[in-house]
Amino acid sequence: MKKLTASLLVLVLSSSIAVVHAQQKNDTIKTKEIEGVVVTALGIKREKKSLGYASQEIKASALSDGTTNTGNIGAQLSGKVAGLNVTTNNNFGGSANLLIRGVKSLGGGNPLIVIDGSPVNNTYTQEKNVDYGNALSDINQEDIESINVLKGAAASALYGERGLNGVIVITTKNGKGKDDGSWGVTLSSSINVGFVDKSTFPEYQTRYGAGYSQKFGTQGPGGLNNANFGADASWGPKFDPNLLVYQWDSFDPTSPNYGKATPWVAAKNGPVTFFNNPTTYNNTVTLEKGEKGKNISFTYDNMMMDGLMPNSHINKNTFSLKVNYDLTPKLHTSFYSTMTLQDTKGRSVTGYNDNTMSNFRQWWQTNVDMAELERAYFTNVNPALASAANNYGNVTWNRKSAGNGAPAYWNNPYFQAYQNYTTDRRNRNFSYAQVTYDLLDNISVTGKVSYDRSNLFAENRLAVGSIAQAFGQSGNDVSSGYARRDVLRTETNYDLMANYKFDITDDINVSGVLGGNIRRNYFNSVFGSTEGGLVVPGIYALSNSKKSPLASDENEFTTQTNSGYITASFDFFKKFYIDGTWRVDQSSTLPAGNNVYNYPSVTTSIIMSEILDTKSWMNFWKLRANYAEVGGTADPYMLTNNYRSAGILSGVGIYNSILNQADPNLKPQRSKEFEVGTEAHFLKDRITVDFAYYKTKTIDQIITLPVSSGTGYTGKVINAGRIDNTGFEVQLGLVPIKSKDFTWNIDANWSKNKNEVMSLYPGITNLLLNSFQGGVSLNARVGEAWGTLIGGDYVYLNGQRVIDPTTGIYQIKANQIIGNTTPDWIGGIRNSFSYKGFSLSFLIDMRKGGDIFSTDMYYGMDTGLYKETAIGDYRDKDVILPGVLPDGSPNNIALSQFTTGSNYGYETQPAKEFVYDGSFIKLREASIGYMLPKSLLAGTKIYDAKISIVGRNLWIIHKNLPYADPEAMIGGGINSYGWSIGSMPTTRDIGVNVTFKF
């Protein structure tokens, strides 16, 4: 991996620098001010050269022009920003996890999302084993003008308690219209089709069939064997086309094979044929008009997406309106509103239980043909046939026995997809109204109100005839049921601020903002389910419950934060800048005495190119440094114990036990950061470099610490823990060639973050964050980077694995450090070419390190699914596992592979064996575009037309995790780290985009 990555970098950079030198004579760029104005915290516009902290702006074209539309703008930031680690899973409509400059909180954390200066909700929602995505996916990418990533504490200090994890600042487009002042119309349309990347899906062995040993279990008519129906494994008898066997479909009256024994061979149609080619249609129309002092823009976007799994579909409609209007030369108004209406059906199940993908990756029979399963489902689910006798259409490969067709462990995958599906509706509205009045030439006052509302209604179904599984509020095993969740979130922000700018002398000035904010958040969630199953099949309602439903699980809270802030930015001779900010927050979720706290920052930058006059060869050089503090407040209801209703018994209300002891003396967590950096532009911007070094210390983390149950609790809420992050970030821009008709641009970024958990609590050295199958857990461990994987490892003697002399298999030592999910570094390289009307671009996205535990391999190697388990005559002979006996002598104990099954996987090997390096190199994006010449459009009403062929995830150039994508974790937030289990395969997506402007 290291050599390959280094070779790529050397090849790109060396060729680029050489061409830069050769092209200097053709350079037509004129000396100019660097990069102009960017949008920073609170929507404040600043000259980029004056900033004393690192930020990186991504224009809309770089976000969307080179890739297919993912439906989540967060995913399209991957590989484009130094210090921003984006993890995109493959869940249908799922989350994209964003992490800036490493994990700072023991519980993880995502950056704050801001639109035009107003914060918006980016909550990640996962209900049981379903990933409902993060709210960033509700943002219409057609509205976005640019995204500015505020990475460090100094950049985000003005957001106080919300600035701990950095800020993603989104600026929306203003209406422009045509040059003649008339309305402009833009029509965009695209279609994208996905194809399974087979390197992210199991490659099955095709030599052995169903069973846990190479024996048939029972005999059928005529002395012929029955297949091992109840075994959800493929460590069974060797395939032989001359051997006739009664298989699962021999007992399906609707099957052509009913009553027949069929040849014992590998399936012609394996699980990969279960998937569809996901297709996305996206259509957008924009109406806009603009002139000085007033502009308007209206956008309607429709996205229809069919997923990889059968019976999965998303229909999303987004409406946006933005109006800027000057009522008088001094009174300016702005209004923006966007509404997203999304209906989703058939989200993929995540995790272990009842996940079709876990079935395919861990517990499958290679003799089972998917085409036969599809036929069996669609035939038997017919109302004329569906009954208890055929499990209401759930005729599956995994029947309990020849005489019992009930599923032993797994439903028919088609029954699971078409009957046990989820649906959800999410309505999202974000709006703001703003008024600015110019009191004087150098003072203006702005008042603003913003409102963000998200309403999710999610339903989960378990059809009659399903295998019994944990379901609903009680978590009892039932074979049918219905559950629903209603979630409402709102956030309202009231802002009042004064902007000022004064010239102290002709060469010294000061500018800044004085303001205040009131933020109110409301949350309401209601969860209800049937109990004991459904009375009438197919009717999904809480009233169709066999038993009395439990009391609904209800949650509600309202929180408020009051804030004041002031900034001052001093400009000395356009060569030296110094900024200071101060913000004070008052939080309703902290106790009196601890609920008022402040966050300062100070930054400085020096324009060395002005001082040293280096413009002949280095047209811009800036040094910068800063120190800042940011933080975080507590979640609701952490100060006093609260009680949850468990229903009514004999007319008396009963309540659940309190498991976590509240802390009435909580204080806010704080993060302190120091940063230095430099930015330099050479050869009239043909080479640009931006470098940053930072060190962050986060203290007083608010955590729930496990305690002895003898205290009456299992956890205690406390302030504890310290995490340090130290890192480097590099951005590199090259223009190897720039002539009249041809331009080649290279944009590269690289970042490395070192994370360490410095302390937790006196006497405590480990905090459990998440638990995985196989006895593996994700932890924050003192002295280690956040994200330590703990599980079973081999016992070693002089570096050799020790064998248990009584069993002949490995001795295993539990609770050992077996990996860490933190990557060593991340980076990306984008090449862009333009020639006249043609354009070509591609993005290489890279990650080095970050360990992953594969539950799929842990179980799937034991059950004999993967090709590695059937190499040569491995299964047909006794095996002596490599290692030594406890006395140090070589192992000589032979194990039968014929009668006892696998000596791979979880039964003989520890979890450590299935921890893989999560490195990857991907061809993340690629596009070819053509802008039609104006001469071709003459005589039409079209004044601009472009067609592009785009692609995403076209090639995983390198990875170490077998049969899965190293990014494809089970969800967002804490679920996006270190666990590969039952993930959907990655698709190579190819699309065509066309845009017409009238």
User: What's the rounded overall pLDDT mean?
Assistant: 91
Give the count of helical stretches: 9
Major β-sheet annotation: 22 strands, antiparallel, barrel
Distance between the termini: 49 Å
Q: Which architecture of the largest domain does the CATH hierarchy give at level 2?
A: Beta Barrel
User: Strand portion, in percent?
Assistant: over 45%
Q: Give the CATH class of the largest domain.
A: Mainly Beta
User: Judging from the principal axes of the Cα atoms, what is the shape?
Assistant: globular
Q: How many domains comprise the coordinates?
A: 2
Question: How would you portray this structure in words?
Answer:
Residues 53-167 form the TonB-dependent receptor plug domain. InterPro entries: Beta-barrel_TonB, Beta-barrel_TonB_sf, Plug_dom, Plug_dom_sf, TonB-dep_OMP_SusC/RagA, TonB-dep_OMP_SusC/RagA_CS, TonB-dep_rcpt-like. The structure is a single chain. This protein is mainly beta and 998 residues long. It folds into two domains: 37-176 and 281-347 and 422-641 and 653-852, Maltoporin, Chain A, CATH 2.40.170; 203-278 and 348-420, no CATH class. It is built from nine helices and 56 strands. The chain has a 22-stranded antiparallel barrel. Strands 3-10-11-6-7 form a five-stranded mixed sheet. A four-stranded antiparallel sheet has the order 43-44-45-48, with no helix packed on it. The two termini are 49 Å apart.
